[in-house]
Amino acid sequence: MLHIVACIKQVPDTKIIKMNPKTNTMDRSSAPAILNPYDSHAVEEAVRLRARYGGVVSVLTMGPPPAVKAIRKCIEIGADEGYMITDRAFAGADTLATSYALTKALEKIGEIRPIDVIICGKMTIDGDTGQVGPGIARRLDMPPLTSVNKVVEINQAERYTIIHRKLEDGHEVIRSTLPCLFSVEKDINDVPYSTLPNMLRAARYQPHIWSVSDLGDIDKTQLGLKGSPTIVSSVWAPQKPQGGKLLEGEPEEQIRQLLDVLLERRELFEVSAGGGAS
Predict the structure, then answer these.
(1) Dihedrals φ, ψ of 117, to 5°?
(2) Greatest Cα-to-Cα distance within the chain, rounded to the nearest angstrom
(3) What is the torsional sign of CA 246, 251, 257, 260?
(4) What does each of the 278 residues of the chain score in pLDDT, given as a tens digit?
(5) Is the preceding peptide bond at 229 cis, omega within 30 degrees of 0?
(6) Please, which residues bridge with residue 173 across strands?
(7) Residues forming beta bridges with residue 159, ordered by sequence position
(8) CA distance 142 to 204
(9) What does residue 152 show for φ and ψ, rounded to 5 degrees?
């Protein structure tokens, strides 16, 4: 039976979030927490693969207790099971420490039901690194298939999959052994509105919640801040661009005004002695 696990994250809605001008940090209280948009497509693709091949869709997240809401959103989309690891020991984790913690949780899930495919969103909108998925694949010694925008086939009997990987000028077709990890693009599917039965099930669903002590043999020095070799030294909002100059008058007058502006900035168009733009 095909078992797909989608790794998801609850993130602040970056369309609404504000920056604290004094501390140069994100004011997470200013925006609602949502399921990472890329991850919603990962869960939807897992549900579609289950419809094609049968099996079970599980979701996994690491976060504070309120992240249960993100798991329930995945149940709305159609996931079967939800797992969350939450503990103060995970706080402050960078992508390396996060991939380690999720890997240990995936190993425990695999003991319950062997995993065939792990699906992650391409990246999270609050970090934009795209590193956690490949980090998990490396730790589990499985092929990482990134930028996936189409799953052509999963052959459980012969243990392989064929996918399309998005490129700037097209796509490449890749055949990989199972188990493997996909990190998916948004254009892999459209996430429909949740059905009423799924919404009702999600409202009362209680996920499996594990702390560090539930993960068995784990190296605590690789968790949280202790296990994070990178830090975000500062975050700031870019300055808003100044308003442009409005050209007025008849077309001939506007052209003269434009030429005056260009001549004032002619250094942008100077040519170096070597023949290239300076």
Answers:
(1) -140, 135
(2) 77
(3) positive
(4) 899 999 999 998 877 766 666 655 566 666 788 999 999 999 999 999 999 999 999 999 999 999 999 999 999 999 999 999 999 999 989 999 999 999 999 999 999 999 999 999 999 888 788 999 999 999 999 999 999 999 999 999 999 999 999 998 999 999 999 999 999 999 999 999 999 999 999 999 999 999 999 998 999 999 999 899 987 777 666 777 777 778 888 999 999 888 888 887 776 666 554 555 44
(5) no
(6) 164
(7) none
(8) 35
(9) -80, -45
pTM: 0.81
Residue of 82, 64, 31 whose CA lies nearest to 205: 82
Distance, CA of 148 to CA of 96 (rounded, Å): 22
Which residues make Cβ contacts (< 8 Å) with residue 1, sequence separation at least 6? 54, 55, 56, 113
Burial of 217 (0-12, 13-18, 19+ CB in 10 A): exposed
Bridge partners of 59, per DSSP, are 6, 82
* Token pair 């784990």: residue: 218
Ramachandran angles phi, psi of 73, nearest 5°: -65, -35
How does 61-90 read in b/e, with b if 16+ C-beta sit within 10 Å?
bbbeeebbebbbbbbbbbbbbbbbbbbebb
d(CA 46, CA 191): 11
The token duo for 141 is 């010694």
